[in-house]
Write a structure and sequence with these properties.
Blueprint: H1 11-19, H2 27-38, E1 43-46, H3 53-64, E2 74-77, H4 81-94, E3 103-106, H5 112-121, E4 125-128, H6 130-138, E5 149-152, H7 155-160, H8 164-173, E6 179-184, H9 189-198, E7 203-206, H10 209-216, E8 217-223, H11 229-239, E9 245-249, H12 252-264, E10 269-272, H13 278-289, E11 295-299, H14 300-303, E12 313-316, H15 323-330, E13 340-346, H16 351-361, E14 366-368, H17 373-390, H18 395-398, H19 402-409, H20 414-450, H21 453-463, H22 469-483, E15 515-516, E16 519-520, E17 522-527, H23 537-548, E18 556-560, E19 565-570, E20 592-594
Parallel strand pairs: 1-6, 1-7, 2-4, 2-5, 3-4, 5-6, 8-13, 8-14, 9-11, 9-12, 10-11, 12-13
Antiparallel strand pairs: 15-16, 17-19, 17-20, 18-19
Helix pairs in contact: 2-3, 3-4, 6-8, 11-17, 15-16, 20-21
Bound molecules: adenosine monophosphate.
Adenosine monophosphate binds near residues 25, 29, 49, 50 and 309.
Length: about 600
């Protein structure tokens, strides 16, 4: 089999790769490195994060470098600061035995002067986020005349983040004669367009996501109600002693609230989201990397570019609307040949999204029964007794105390002692579980009986920082229509009658409002603003238009209720509609439901 030794790479590079534990190339490395080492060419490589892309472009770049002048010879563009630092770290690792290679990370939020000083001292490779690099280029701080290779890493993410204009401007600052290597997980039209315009007969390499996802990531689903998710997440931690996971939520608020709840319940978790300062983010990441915290609760944006190996699980606490995002998330586990689990905690109302994600991954997700309290308790007791039995006894301390201990407890039967001891040790956990279950049940009951009160309870829960309201309402109201009043979750064996699919959803029920044969034409949306908020239809439409950039004309069928409004928008607004949730509204967090 081919490996880094058989490719005739320079000796210091091979030594560094050996040291970094790189024995066998990953598929993207095998496809790209020998090709680029023998040919000057543009390249389009379709590969996920975590497939070894950095070495795939980093090794050929380092092989091409001929240090001498102070000007940069290669430029790598990537979407985030995290990724920028991570690529820099990797390249520094690879080049540590090579002569005088300078690699300079350039990203927003840090000092311009320091970066300019690095350019003046001399740099061989610049690793940059587009915005900050553009600033330097416009100020004439970088001599680009010797740049002969440009790498665009995570190109789809860069475009998603609105960097297209900057990238095109940057390209205009670079010499005409250069190689362009584009890496991306997906190839949307916008990227195709870029490649046509700026690349010359690029070689295309596709490293199937199926390889990575299908082989190494196990996709599992726990169907549940929204308000059961915190409890189930805690059961997951309790039943997986080695859990090391990123838990994805949809909003910053959800991430913060969930992390706080986990902490309060005694679990080591922390939140990573856009509202944290850079220093706070760094602190959280260091603690996570050092495994001082076992669960990082993160939003998709904040988690971009984070490189953490050995994750046992990626948990989708909320499913993303875009199946591509699902792929990105789950690609963070099962790295470098290891196995990993991508676990979805899914409300039944999200089965459309589940199916789309499943289709994109290319294999069926496994629908699992979440562990019961009894399962978890059994596991914890087993572990406890395993430790107890294998633990060496400090004879000199405890043996002499035995007569005294014996005397203190001699009037209690051994069986009683053992049971009470277990209660002392595990009772708090059992109690906490029971309390959480009761709370979830009573919320469900309030909902079923409550009519208008439902909204009040729902609001209160949200303020207390429990389940994110959106999914709760979504799962409850729609599921109730389908399921009648029976709570299927408590009767899992009867969960899927014949007329329902394996998610417990009726196959025959089309989401008539949203779907036609050709796909999504109009979307029916629910918003948690209504007559009680003192608004009229026109004002709601205005607000929606303002948040999404749609014209008011496109917001149709507006129906107002006490505490909510339903309306329709064109299918093309699928992504933008969630901008509504970012709008400032007095005393309320706006929540959008896709109906
Ligand atoms: P990347 O996609 O470049 O971010 O790589 C994902 C992770 O896999 C990084 O932590 C790399 O250090 C590691 N890695 C990449 N290639 C190899 C390899 N050939 N052997 C072992 N580990 C690797």
């Amino acid at each position: 089999m081919e490996n880094f030794h058989s490719w005739g790479l320079n000796e210091p590079l091979v030594r560094a790769l050996d040291e970094a534990g790189y024995e066998n190339p990953t598929p993207v490395q095998a496809a790209v490195i020998p090709f680029l080492n023998s040919t000057r060419s543009d390249l389009i490589a379709l590969a996920q994060t975590g497939t070894g892309k950095t070495a795939a472009f980093g090794i050929p770049l380092l092989e091409r470098l001929q240090p001498g002048s102070r000007n940069p010879k290669a430029l790598i563009l990537c979407p985030t600061r995290e990724l920028c630092l991570q690529i820099t770290r990797e390249l520094e690792k690879f080049s540590r035995y090579m002569d005088r290679i300078n690699i300079t990370p350039v990203y927003g939020g840090s000092s311009y002067e320091k970066q300019e000083m690095a350019f003046r001292r001399g740099t061989d490779i610049i690793v940059a986020t587009p915005g900050r690099l553009m600033d330097h280029l416009e100020k004439g701080k970088i001599n680009t005349t010797e740049i002969t290779a440009l790498v665009l890493d995570e190109s789809d993410e860069m475009l998603n983040m609105g960097f297209r204009e900057d990238i095109e401007k940057i390209l205009k600052h670079l010499p005409e004669e250069k190689e362009v290597w584009l890496f991306s997980a997906t190839l949307p039209d916008e990227i195709r367009h870029l490649t046509k315009r700026y690349m010359k007969q690029p070689k295309e390499v596709t490293i199937g996501r199926v390889n990575q996802s299908a082989d190494k990531v196990k996709h599992q689903v726990w169907m549940c109600r929204m308000d059961e998710k915190p409890l189930l997440l805690e059961r997951l931690v309790d039943s997986e002693p080695d859990l090391y996971a990123i838990v994805f939520t949809r909003t910053r608020k959800d991430a913060q609230e969930l992390a706080e709840k986990l902490l309060k319940d005694g679990y080591t978790a922390d939140a990573l989201h856009g509202e944290l300062s850079q220093a706070q983010r760094d602190r959280v990441m260091t603690r996570f990397r050092n495994r001082d915290i076992r669960m990082l609760v993160a939003t998709d944006v904040a988690a971009r570019g984070i490189d953490v190996n050995d994750l046992t699980h990626v948990v989708h606490y909320s499913l993303p609307d875009d199946p591509e995002v699902y792929i990105h998330r789950s690609g963070r586990t099962a790295r470098a040949g290891k196995e990993g689990i991508s676990l979805v905690l899914a409300a039944r109302s999200r089965t459309d999204l589940l199916k789309r994600a499943e289709k994109m991954v290319g294999k069926a997700f496994e629908i699992m029964e979440p562990p019961t309290q009894e399962d978890v308790l059994r596991l914890r007791m087993e572990n406890f007794f395993k430790t107890l039995k294998s633990m060496p006894l400090d004879e000199s301390v405890w043996r002499p105390l035995y007569p005294q201990i014996h005397q203190l407890i001699q009037d209690v039967e051994p069986e009683e002692i053992l049971l009470r001891f277990m209660q002392l040790h595990f009772g708090k956990w059992v109690g906490k579980e029971a309390q959480a279950r009761n709370q979830a049940r009573s919320r469900d009951r309030d909902f079923r009986e409550g009519g208008r009160d439902r909204d009040r309870d729902f609001g209160r829960d949200r303020d207390r920082g429990r389940s994110g309201g959106r999914d709760f309402e979504r799962s409850s109201s729609r599921d109730r229509d389908r399921r009648g009043s029976r709570d299927r979750y408590e009767e899992p064996s009867r969960r899927a009658p014949r007329s329902e699919d394996r998610y417990g959803r009726r196959e025959s029920r089309p989401s008539a409002d949203n779907r036609n044969d050709g796909g999504f034409d109009t979307l029916k949306i629910g918003l948690n603003l209504g007559i009680q908020d003192g608004l009229g239809k026109r004002q709601v439409a205005k607000l929606v238009a303002l948040a999404t950039g749609l014209s008011e004309r496109n917001i149709t069928d507006v129906r107002m209720h006490g505490s909510r409004t339903e309306f329709k928008v064109p299918g093309s607004a699928r992504k933008n509609i969630y901008s509504l949730e970012k709008m400032e509204y007095p005393d309320k967090k706006l929540e959008v439901q896709l109906l």
